Amino acid sequence: MTILHRIGEAIRELLQQVPLTGVRLLFVGSLVAILLWVLSLPAERTEPEGGARRWDENLKWSAGLALGIQILVYSLL
After folding, report:
1. Quick one: which of 6, 8, 26 has its CA closest to 16?
2. CA distance linking residue 44 with residue 9, whole number of Å
3. For residue range 4-22, what is the model confidence (pLDDT) as tens digits?
4. How far apart are CA 72 and CA 49, in angstroms?
5. What is the pTM of this model?
6. Are 15 and 58 in contact (CB under 8 A)?
7. Exposed, middle or buried: residue 21 (CB in 10 Å: 0-12, 13-18, 19+)?
8. How far is residue 20's CA from residue 26's CA, in Å, rounded to a whole number?
9. Where are the domains of the chain?
10. I want to staple 35 with a disulfide (CB 3.0 to 4.6 A). Which of 8, 25, 67, 76 is the partner?
């Protein structure tokens, strides 16, 4: 067994000690943080310049919906 095998085995053993609920909380928490960031963006940053002012121009609501669905799905898995 080479030194790389030993290093890889040590890393694998360390990662196996992490509880899956903790990993899930970190992953879903990162999605929630991104959702909060997206929703806090000002409208002028998420709308095209000189647009026709339609209801679907503000992209943060569709991005928020997509992130909300992802949060729901990953929370239920």
Report:
1. 8
2. 50
3. 999 999 999 999 999 988 9
4. 33
5. 0.71
6. no
7. exposed
8. 10
9. 20-76
10. 67
